[in-house]
Amino acid sequence: MSTNPGRVKKDEGFLGKLGGTLARKKRSKEVSDLHEEGKNAINAPLLPSSADLLPEDMLLEENAERSMLDPTSREDPKFKDLQKVLIDWINNELEEERIIVKDLEEDLYDGQVLQKLFEKLSGRKLNVAEVTQSEIGQKQKLQTVLEAVNELLRPQGWTIEWAVDSIHSKNLVAIVYLLVALAMHYMAPIRLPEHVSVQVVVVKKKEGILQTAQVTKELTTTTEMMMGRFERDAFDTLLDHAPDKLNVVKTSLITFVNKHLNKLNLEVTELESQFADGVYLVLLMGLLEDYFVPLYNFYLTPESFEQKVHNVAFAFELMQDGGLKKPKARPEDVVNLNLKSTLRVLYNLFTNYKSAD
Length: 357
Description:
Structural class: mainly alpha
Number of strands: 3
Helix content: 55-70%
Shape: elongated
Distance between the termini: 120 Å
Largest sheet: 3 strands, antiparallel
């Protein structure tokens, strides 16, 4: 096959010039990139490199942002423990529905489990399709569920840390935030791990450039705060302003309960441990209200955690029957030897029955 030497020579000359131009531009871009890389290294040494970003992050629109869980936080033992507690809680609540959740991201994103969980907790039936396979259908279901959740939680002062897109995109932090809020609002009979925080990487596109920042998200605080005990009472004030008087308070409470329990030849020396199984609480309520509590209503010698919780919960019912407000403490807190919760329950009895014979 014949060739045209002149054409080849001309092409080589053109490509050579083009190559030189591209090379100069490449070197200029490399210098610019190096400068930008150096600036980023100084300003944000702990942030992930672009290699850690997902493809969808590169497609962000101007001023749009996306967040992702830091890989280190994902492996944090306390965060994993929190997920396990929430999964066990959901499975227990939805046992009759024969729903088994194994992974929060994979099992909750489409709204089906969240719908069933909210309906069980609230006693409300939501007007949604039972089964939705399409993305549009799933997001519509999520929209309905989250609107109902937000209407419930927003008036209570909750900051809404979740949305349809974040849940559907399997944002684990948003999912956990939502579940923790529901567990706290409905006083779930579970013990959430305290002080669980995670690091979240926030990616934002500004002037065509992806910017990253790390933000700490606090998922849980203390057990007392998480269980909705935001209303302070005289007991809080007493401990805050006179913590040195704690032993005086304990002594006064011991004297008060023994004044009544001695009638049954019973005596208390350790408040947190001796009330933990609920037996003394039940008997004390019978003495204070002057009635006999049938033994078949509670476990006189409880052995399991569940039996002890039953006893304390039953004692709480007797308190409410006697005109007292529902205790701020959970039965599980008392059973778990939470001293402050136990003292709060007894202090409430003391203030209401201190004049009783």
